[in-house]
Design a protein that fits this description.
The complex is a heterodimer. Chain A has one domain (2-488). In chain A, strands 1-2 form a two-stranded antiparallel ribbon. Chain A is mainly α. In chain A, β1 and β2 form a beta hairpin. Chain A has helices at residues 2-14, 17-35, 41-54, 59-84, 95-143, 146-159, 168-182, 208-226, 245-267, 273-287, 299-323, 329-340, 349-352, 354-375, 379-386, 390-409, 412-430, 436-459, 470-488, and strands spanning 185-186, 193-194. Chain A has 19 helices and 2 strands. In chain A, α5 (95-143) runs parallel beside α11, α9 (245-267) runs parallel beside α11 and α11 (299-323) runs parallel beside α12. In chain B, 58% of the residues are buried. The two termini of chain B are 24 Å apart. In chain B, strands 1, 2, 3, 4, 5, 6, 7, 8, 9 and 10 form a 10-stranded mixed sheet that branches. In chain B, α6 links the parallel β5 and β6 (182-185). Chain B has 2 domains: 2-120 and 251-319, D-Maltodextrin-Binding Protein, domain 2 (3-Layer(aba) Sandwich), CATH 3.40.190; 121-243, Periplasmic binding protein-like II (D-Maltodextrin-Binding Protein, domain 2, 3-Layer(aba) Sandwich), CATH 3.40.190. Chain B is α/β, with parallel strands linked by helices. Chain B has 11 helices and 10 strands. Classes of the chains: A mainly alpha, B alpha/beta. At the A-B interface, α3, α5, β1, α12 and α16 of A face α1, α3, β6, α7 and α8 of B.
Chain lengths: 501, 323
C-alpha cells in the first residue's frame, strides 16, 4: 500500500535518535509553555524559531521540533485551566468551565487524566485524518466563502446564550463587551483605524492573550489581595493520580464527536482551535441529557473541548500544508518557518517533498504518544510546577504573565492594558458577569464581522447572498435552532450554577 | 488580523542575542515585524551578505520590532534613533503605502531617508484555471462593462497595496470609477487564492511568490505580471505592459536609515547595499525566494519612493481611504 510505504518512509526520517530527542524536548517545552498563562502555542513556537535556526536544524528536524512544541502547548493549556481556573492559552478557555469545578470537587487528578486522554484521542485521530484525507479535505476550504464563514460564526454566537451563567442577560452583556473590544484596531475592510484614539499601539487591536491574562490571572490576584489570601482559587489539592476508567469510557463517544467537530473547524482556514473547542463543548451540551451538570464539573465537559481543540490543531495543519493558508495563529507562525526553510507549502508539497510531509506526520504520531505519557502518568511533574503555595505561585504566575505579555510587542503598553483588563475582570467577578463570553467575543468578533462585510461587498449589499449555498442554509438552521431551543426548553432546563470561589 | 502580529520581541531578543558574535555596538537592522516575514527576511539576508562579502566589518544584529504594521519601528527610529549611523531598517512597498495613507499616526516619509531596494516580488493578477477570463484585458473589460460582475480578493486591507494595484491597472485601461470596483481584503495571499479558486471571488491580486505553488499545480492562471520584462523562470506569463496596460508595480524589498545621519554615513550604507545587490549570494537568495531583480539605491531610490507615495496618496484620496 502506498500509504504504508509513505508512512514507513516518514518513520524512517522521524525515528532517528536526534529527531526523536527533538520531539521529546519539544513536547516537554510545549507542555510547560502551554501550561503557563500568558504563553500560548503561537508565542511558544515563535520564541523557539530562532533556536531552530541557530541549531542549524534541517527542514524536517525544525518542523518536528516546532510541531511537538505546538502539540505540547495544546496539551499543556488544560493544566492551568483545571487547577487554577486560568486558561493556559486561548483554546483551553472552554476547559475551565467544567475542569475547574471538577478540581474544586477534589477530582483534579481525574480531570487532568481524562483531559489528557481526550487530548490524545483528538490529536491522534486528527493526525490520522491529516494523513488520509489532507488532499481531499483541502477542497473543503474552497467551499467556504464569506457567506459560509459568517453562518459558521453566527452558529457559535447563537449557542453562546446557553453558556455557564446564572443570568443570561449578563452573559449577553459580556459577549457584547467582547465584540466591542474586538472592534478596536485597523478595520480590515477599509484599513481605517477604529477606536484607537490615534494610539499606535492599538492599531493591531487588543491581543487575546492580554485580555485572557488580564481577566483571569490579574483579576485573580486582586481577589487574593482583597481576601488576604483566604478566598482564592489557587491551591487545589491534588492527591494520588488514578485513572478514572469509568469517566473515560463514559465520555469516549463525546471525545469522538468533539474530535470530528474540532478537526472540521481546524481545517477551515477562517475558523481555528478556539472555535473548534467552543463548538465541541456546546455541541456536547446540546446532545447531553444531563445538561444541568455542564458547568458544574461534568467529565464530558472536560473531555469535549480538549478533544476538540487538539483535533483542531491537527486539522489546522491541513490547509497550511496543502494550500499554504494557515488555519490558526500558530500555523501562521509555522508557515513562516516553512517559507524561511525554502519549503513552499501548497498543492504540490505532498508530491514534491514527501520526506518533509511524511516525516512530519510520523513525528506527530510519535509526539502524541510521548505527550500521552508525559501528560497522564507524569502529569504530577507539571502539576508540581503549579501546586506550590499560592503566596509563591501567584506572584510567580504574575511574573511569567508580564514576561509573556511583554514579549508580544515589546512595549509596556500591553502591560498597562493587561492590568486594566485585570481591574475590569475583578469588577465583573464582583458583579457576577461571566468573563468567558467576553473572551469569545474578542476571539470571534473580528472574523464574523469581516466575513459579513466581505459577503456584502461581493453581493453588492444583497442579503440573500448569505443564504446562497446549501452549507449556508444548513448552518443558519442550526444557528436558529441553537438560539431558539433554549428559550422553549427553558422550563425543562435549570441554568447551570457556576462553582463559587 | 491580529494572529500575524503578536509573537514579538522575545523571539527577536533571543535571535538578537544569538546573532551577536562580534563585539558590542555593532550595526543593527530593525525588522518591523515578527520573525519569518518579508521584513525579517530582508534584515537577515542583507545583513548576513553584508558581513559575508566583507562590506560590514562586524555581523549585523537583527532586532524584531513588530507593531502597527511597521509604525512602531518607524516611530522608534524617528523619535529615539534619529542620529544613529549604525542602524538600518527593513522596508517594502507596504511601508510606502502606509506612509502615503497616513497610517503611521501622523509620521511622514520625509522623517527618514530611504536607502535602496535590491529585489522585488512582482505584482500579479490571477484567476482560477476554469475562469472565462483569458487575458488581462478580458478581465478589465468585464469590470468596465459591469463593475459588479468581478470581485477581487487580496491579502491587504481595502486601500492597501494589493487593492491599489488593481485600481492602477484599471486606471491605465481608462476606467476611473475607483469606488465601483469590488475588492475584499482577506488574511494573506494564500487565503485570497483559495477564495478565488473556490469561485467566491473572480480574481486575486497579490505577489508572484504567493501564487507559485498554485500555478505549478495548475489551479490558477496568471493573467499578467506587473514588471517591465517577463520574470525569469515564468517566461510564459505575459507582462501587463505587453498587453497594452502600462503598469509596473512590484513589492520591493529594501531599507531606510535615520534622517539625521551624515551624508558620508548614508553613502557608506548605500555602497554596502549596492555591493550586496551585485553579489552572487543575493542572486541565489532571490531565486530561492521568488524575487525578481529590482535595484535602485541611494538618491535614485528616494526619488522613486517619493513618486510612488504621491501616486498612492492621490489614489487613496479618490477611494476615500484618506481625506
Amino acid at each position: 500500500m502506498e500509504l504504508l510505504a509513505n508512512l514507513s518512509q516518514g518513520f524512517a526520517v522521524a525515528l532517528t535518535p536526534s529527531t526523536l530527542l527533538l520531539a521529546i524536548a519539544g513536547c516537554f517545552l510545549g507542555t510547560i509553555i502551554g501550561s503557563l498563562p500568558g504563553l500560548g502555542p503561537s508565542n511558544g513556537v515563535a520564541i523557539l524559531i530562532p533556536l531552530a535556526f541557530s541549531l542549524g536544524l534541517d527542514a524536517t528536524e525544525a518542523l518536528v521540533l516546532m510541531t511537538s512544541v505546538y502539540y505540547g502547548a495544546m496539551y499543556g493549556g488544560r493544566i492551568s485551566s483545571i487547577l487554577l481556573n486560568i486558561p493556559g492559552d486561548e483554546p483551553a478557555l472552554m476547559t475551565t468551565l467544567d475542569g475547574y469545578p471538577m478540581a474544586k470537587q477534589g477530582r483534579a487528578g481525574d480531570a487532568l487524566v481524562l483531559s489528557g486522554v481526550a487530548s490524545f484521542v483528538g490529536a491522534f485521530l486528527a493526525t490520522v485524518g491529516l494523513m488520509l484525507l489532507a488532499p481531499i479535505l483541502a477542497r473543503v476550504a474552497y467551499l467556504f466563502g464569506p457567506a459560509e464563514y459568517f453562518a459558521l460564526y453566527l452558529l457559535a454566537f447563537c449557542t453562546l446564550g446557553g453558556l455557564a451563567s446564572k443570568n443570561q442577560a449578563k452573559a449577553a452583556l459580556a459577549a457584547a463587551i467582547g465584540l466591542g473590544i474586538a472592534m478596536i484596531g485597523l478595520d480590515n475592510q477599509t484599513g481605517i483605524p477604529r477606536l484607537t484614539f490615534g494610539e499606535i499601539h492599538l492599531m493591531d487591536g487588543v491581543d487575546f492573550l492580554v485580555a485572557i491574562v488580564g481577566l483571569f490571572a490579574v483579576s485573580e490576584i486582586f481577589m487574593f489581595i482583597e481576601s488576604h489570601g483566604r478566598n482564592t482559587a489557587i491551591g487545589v489539592k491534588l492527591d494520588k493520580i488514578t485513572i478514572p476508567f469509568r469517566d473515560i469510557v463514559k465520555s469516549f463517544p463525546a471525545m469522538l464527536r468533539s474530535t470530528a467537530i474540532g478537526f472540521f473547524a481546524g481545517v477551515l482556514p477562517g475558523a481555528g482551535a478556539s472555535l473548534g473547542s467552543f463548538l465541541a463543548y456546546m455541541g456536547e451540551k446540546a446532545v447531553a441529557r444531563d445538561k444541568n451538570s455542564f458547568g458544574r464539573g461534568n467529565p464530558r465537559g472536560v473531555a469535549a473541548p480538549e478533544a476538540g481543540n487538539n483535533a483542531a490543531a491537527g486539522g489546522a495543519l491541513v490547509p497550511m500544508l496543502t494550500l499554504g493558508v494557515p488555519g490558526s495563529g500558530t500555523t501562521a507562525v509555522l508557515l513562516a518557518l516553512l517559507l524561511t526553510l525554502n519549503i513552499t507549502p501548497g498543492p504540490l508539497l505532498f508530491a514534491e517533498r514527501p520526506e518533509v510531509v511524511w516525516g512530519l506526520i510520523a513525528a506527530l504520531l510519535i509526539s502524541n504518544v510521548v505527550l500521552l505519557i508525559m501528560n497522564v502518568p507524569m502529569v504530577k511533574l507539571f502539576v508540581r510546577l503549579l501546586s506550590v503555595p499560592p503566596w509563591i505561585l501567584l506572584p510567580g504566575i504574575m511574573m511569567v504573565s508580564f514576561g509573556g505579555i511583554y514579549s508580544l510587542s515589546g512595549s509596556g503598553y500591553d502591560l498597562v492594558l493587561m492590568i486594566v483588563f485585570g481591574l475590569f475582570g475583578y469588577l465583573f467577578r464582583k458583579l457576577d458577569v461571566p468573563t468567558v463570553p467576553i473572551i469569545l467575543g474578542i476571539l470571534l468578533g473580528n472574523n464574523m464581522e469581516d466575513s459579513l462585510r466581505r459577503a456584502m461587498v461581493i453581493s453588492d449589499g444583497d442579503w440573500t447572498y448569505l443564504f446562497s449555498s446549501g452549507i449556508c442554509i444548513g448552518l443558519w438552521i442550526a444557528a436558529i435552532a441553537g438560539f431558539v431551543a433554549p428559550v422553549f426548553l427553558k422550563n425543562l432546563l435549570q441554568p447551570p450554577k457556576p462553582v463559587e470561589d | 488580523m491580529k494572529f500575524y502580529s503578536r509573537k514579538g520581541l522575545m523571539a527577536g531578543a533571543v535571535a538578537g542575542v544569538l546573532a551577536v558574535t562580534g563585539p558590542a555596538f555593532s550595526a543593527e537592522c530593525i525588522a518591523p515585524a515578527n520573525p519569518g516575514g518579508g521584513w525579517d527576511f530582508t534584515c537577515r539576508m542583507i545583513g548576513k551578505i553584508m558581513y559575508d562579502i566583507g562590506v560590514a566589518d562586524k555581523p549585523i544584529q537583527v532586532t524584531n520590532m513588530a507593531g502597527g504594521g511597521g509604525g512602531l519601528a518607524f516611530s522608534h527610529v524617528v523619535n529615539e534613533r534619529n542620529e544613529d549611523a549604525e542602524l538600518i531598517v527593513a522596508a517594502s512597498s507596504a511601508t510606502a503605502t502606509r506612509l502615503a495613507q497616513n497610517a503611521y499616526a501622523g509620521m511622514t516619509a520625509d522623517q527618514v531617508r530611504f536607502l535602496g531596494a535590491i529585489g522585488a516580488d512582482p505584482g500579479v493578477i490571477v484567476v482560477a484555471a476554469d475562469s472565462p477570463y483569458q487575458s488581462l484585458n478580458d478581465l478589465l473589460d468585464a469590470v468596465k462593462a459591469d463593475p459588479t460582475s468581478v470581485t477581487f480578493a487580496g491579502g491587504s486591507a481595502a486601500g492597501g497595496f494589493d487593492h491599489l494595484k488593481v485600481l492602477m491597472a484599471l486606471g491605465r485601461a481608462g476606467f476611473n470609477d475607483v469606488t465601483a470596483v469590488k475588492y475584499i481584503g482577506v488574511d494573506g495571499g494564500g487565503d485570497a487564492i483559495t477564495q478565488t479558486i473556490g469561485g467566491h471571488t473572480q480574481a486575486m491580486t497579490g505577489d508572484m511568490s504567493e501564487v507559485v505553488g498554485f500555478l505549478a499545480a495548475g489551479e490558477v492562471r496568471v493573467l499578467a505580471v506587473f514588471t517591465e520584462d517577463r520574470v525569469p523562470g515564468f517566461d510564459d506569463i505575459p507582462t501587463a505592459t505587453e498587453q497594452g496596460i502600462d503598469i509596473v508595480s512590484v513589492n520591493w524589498r529594501g531599507l531606510y536609515v535615520p534622517l539625521g545621519i551624515s551624508d558620508t554615513d548614508y553613502r557608506k550604507w548605500s555602497d554596502a547595499l549596492a555591493a550586496v545587490a551585485a553579489s552572487d549570494e543575493w542572486a541565489e537568495a532571490m531565486v530561492a525566494n521568488g524575487l525578481a531583480p529590482f535595484t535602485r539605491v541611494g538618491d535614485d531610490f528616494q526619488d522613486y519612493v517619493n513618486g510612488v507615495i504621491l501616486e498612492i496618496e492621490e489614489l487613496s484620496r479618490e477611494i476615500g481611504v484618506i481625506q
